[in-house]
Amino acid sequence: MNKREKIIxxxxxxxxxxxxxxDTLVELGQAINPHHAANNFTxxxxxxxxxxxxxxxxxxxxxxxxxxxxxxxxxDPHTFTxxxxxxxxxxxxxxxxxxxxxxxxxxLNEGNYSYHIKVKQLLAAGVSPALCIGExxxxxxxxxxxxxxxxxxxxxxxGITLGDNTPLYIVYxxxxxxxxxxxxxxxxxxxxxxxxxxxxxxxxxxxxxxxIAIIYGGSVNHDNALNLIAQPDVDGLLIGxxxxxxxxxxxxxxxx
Length: 256
Ligand code: PEP
Known about the structure:
Blueprint: E1 6-11, H1 18-31, H2 34-38, E2 41-46, H3 49-62, E3 66-70, H4 86-92, E4 96-99, H5 102-107, H6 112-125, E5 128-133, H7 137-141, H8 145-157, E6 169-172, H9 186-204, H10 206-209, E7 213-217, H11 225-229, E8 236-239, H12 246-255
Parallel strand pairs: 1-2, 1-8, 2-3, 3-4, 4-5, 5-6, 6-7, 7-8
Helix pairs in contact: 1-3, 1-12, 6-8, 8-9
């Protein structure tokens, strides 16, 4: 049994209304119980940034185990109209921010170097980066999973030092598993997570790596969640579609 933080992150994508947001947070507040509090468990929601301020206010009234985050920042700290920077995310009260979600990697062609800058800026601002990595189906079939992850991790984390107060999360989300009903089997997820942990250890050293939660994402639902998170190197889950069904999302949180 490891001592790392267990975390479930809900990715709200572009879904949501003010009412849904309020209902969800209240429902999730009820899913957080003393068992979670005693077991270093955190629940986080990454919401469309327009809702973030209000969600933070509401979450603070519900539980300090309920964190709110955003889903991207721009690396330009001052001038990029329409975007959010690391320091605005911090000023709003965001505790975490997704970096490099596969929808951005593929559609916007953002590169690992921009993710490196985002990770650095977020850590400096005191907002936890949740760095998403993962291979495409073509890369997997070509036997390139390890090579792709190695490149994504080394380029994004080169020269990064972690402090004690702002955790870094690594989210392994194979592109083909996202919203596809093709979640990885727990055994396969465990094997890749163990590889990722070894890679992180080579880059950051064992002590720092032991503090990093490695999170699985891709078609997690209330049937497969428990077996996935039971794996020794699967420290958390990133959940997209299944969190739009409140009952299912709550059931997943209750099982962890
Ligand atoms: C996601 O988009 O980050 C995600 C994990 O989605 P889903 O759970 O729907 O696969």
